Amino acid sequence: KRDINYGAEISVLDTRLNFEVNYYDNKVTDLLDDVRLPVSVGRGSSVVNSGILSNKGWEISTRIEAIKNADWLWEIGGNITTVKNNLEKVYYRNEPNVSSLLPQHVEGYAVNSWFGYKFDHINPTNGHVMAVAQTVDVNGNIDGEEVIDLSGISSADLQSNYRTFYLGQQNPTLYGGFNTQLRYQNITMRANFVFAMGNKIMSFQDRREGPSGLTDDITAARTNRLKNQQYRWTQPGDITDIPAYSSNYSNYASYLITKDLEKGAYIKCTEVGFSWRANPNMFNKVVRQLTIGLYANNLFTISPYSGTDPEIQMAFGYPTTPSYIFSLNVGF
Question: What's the whole-model pTM score?
Answer without folding.
Answer: 0.85
